[in-house]
Design a protein that fits this description.
4 domains, 4 helices, single chain, 3-stranded mixed sheet, alpha+beta, about 270 residues, Trypsin Inhibitor V, Chain A
Length: about 270
């Protein structure tokens, strides 16, 4: 009986000793040697330049490896980080390797997308989707308001499907909606109504109000004996234009109404 008690006692001591050793190894020794249970939060590396990566990751007990499949983005400088794995904020162990994809130093060539005849807003969205940048917008006379008429890269005209460098700045020539119909108002003074109407319509303008008065004159610029400019009244014959609005040489757009003042014709005399 004593022998059994002795064996049982030793067995308990042995189990206790083993348990103590296991506790020491897993909860004291291993954590000290391997930082068991400690993790590192992966930092954001996107956009960082390669020359800064080594020291940055070493200070955080991380390593890195550059992958061969480089990509390109115009938003970041050459040899900066475009992609990383593991990604930002992931928890990793000390000395974990971070796999990096670099931004290429040479942008690839892409086909120029179709934006001609589309709106400026639509062109901006398309260019961005192709990783192209919208440059200067120059408005030119054209009836198509805000429509893209031409595309330029570094001063050279480009067309749809031309090969261009990704990230290029694209300048646009856009219609102002006025066409070439911005011009000086014609001189209608001393014309009769039909002559004035013909001139107005032929200029892409519209006849506005017609005001008749019993008499009228216009100021004619002349030089006096000393060479000074003076104005003299010139009375207009019946049926002729003596005033107009806008006045001659005023810049007007296509379709502008021109108002006329005309001297009333006398009634036919009854013989």
């Amino acid at each position: 009986m004593n022998e059994i008690k002795y064996i049982f006692k030793n067995l308990i001591l042995m189990i206790g000793g083993v348990s103590l050793i296991i506790f020491f190894l897993f909860y004291i020794y291993f954590p000290i040697k391997t930082n068991h249970g400690d993790t590192i939060t992966v930092p954001n590396l996107i956009g960082m330049e390669l020359k800064d990566i080594d020291e940055f990751l070493s200070d955080r007990d991380l390593r890195y490896e550059i992958l061969d499949d480089s990509s390109y983005s115009s938003e970041y400088p050459p040899y900066s980080i475009l992609q990383q794995n593991p990604s930002e904020n992931e928890k990793v162990k000390e000395n974990r390797k971070i796999y990096l994809t670099l931004n290429s130093s040479i942008p690839p060539k892409i086909k120029m997308p179709k934006i001609i005849n589309g709106s400026v807003k639509n062109a901006q969205l398309i260019l961005k989707s192709y990783d192209l940048k919208l440059g200067e917008i120059t408005y030119v006379p054209d009836m198509a308001r805000n429509a893209v008429l031409k595309m330029f890269i570094e001063g050279d005209s480009v067309s749809e499907n031309d090969l261009v460098l990704k990230g290029s700045i694209v300048d646009l020539e856009v219609g102002n909606g006025l066409g070439n119909q911005i011009f000086d108002t014609p001189d209608l003074i001393n014309l009769d109504l039909e002559e004035a109407r013909f001139t107005i319509i032929g200029s892409g303008l519209r006849l506005g109000n017609i005001i008749y008065q019993d008499s009228g004159y216009y100021n004619n610029k002349i030089l006096d004996e000393e060479g000074n400019e003076i104005f003299e009244k010139v009375w207009v014959n019946p049926g002729k234009v003596f005033r107009q609005s806008p006045i001659k040489s005023t810049k007007v757009k296509i379709g502008r109404r021109i108002n006329l003042w005309i001297v009333t014709k006398p009634e036919d005399e009854i013989i």
